[in-house]
Amino acid sequence: MFDQAGIDAKILESRILSEWKDIAGDFLFREASPESVRDGVLTLRVGNTVLGGQLKLLEDEITGRINRYLGKETVSRIRVRVGPVSLK
C-alpha cells in the first residue's frame, strides 16, 4: 500500500525546491536558497546572520506566500542556516 498523503506532501515539498524562483520573488531568490523541506520545516541558506534574523522575523509572511503558491498548508516553519547561497 502507498501512503498517498505522504506522496502528495513529498511532491509539494519538491515543488518548493524546484520552483523557488517563482515562489520567492527576486530578492529572496537572490539572498536565500532552499536546502530541504522536512515535516513542514523549510531550511533556507542565507549569506549572513543579519539577513537570517530578518527572514525569521518575516517567517509568517514567507510561509504564507509559499502555502498560497502551492494551494495547501505545506510549510509551517523556517529554519535558517548561514553559508554560501546557490542561485538555481
Task: Characterise this structure.
It is a single chain. By secondary structure, this protein is an alpha+beta fold. The chain has one domain (4-82): GMP Synthetase, Chain A, domain 3 (2-Layer Sandwich), CATH 3.30.300. The protein is built from five helices and three strands. It has helices spanning 4-18, 20-24, 26-31, 49-57, 59-70, and strands at 32-38, 41-46, 77-82. It has a three-stranded mixed sheet.
- Secondary structure tally, helices: 5
Query: How many structural domains in the coordinates?
Result: 1
Q: What shape does the CA trace take? A: globular
Class by alpha and beta content: alpha+beta
Specify the CATH class: Alpha Beta
Overall mean confidence score, pLDDT: 89
Binned, the helix content reads: 40-55%
> Can you name the CATH architecture?
2-Layer Sandwich
Query: Between the first and last Cα atoms, what is the distance in angstroms?
Result: 35 Å
CATH topology: GMP Synthetase, Chain A, domain 3
Biggest sheet, open or closed, and with what strands and sense? 3 strands, mixed
CATH superfamily annotation: DnaA, N-terminal domain
DSSP summary, beta strand count? 3
Biggest sheet, spatial arrangement of strands: 1-2-3
Query: What letter string, H or E per element, gives the SSE order?
Result: HHHEEHHE
The fraction of residues assigned to DSSP E strands is 15-25%
The value of Rg in angstroms is 13 Å
Poorly predicted segments? none
What's the structural blueprint in terms of helices and strands?
Elements: H1 4-18, H2 20-24, H3 26-31, E1 32-38, E2 41-46, H4 49-57, H5 59-70, E3 77-82
Parallel strand pairs: 2-3
Antiparallel strand pairs: 1-2
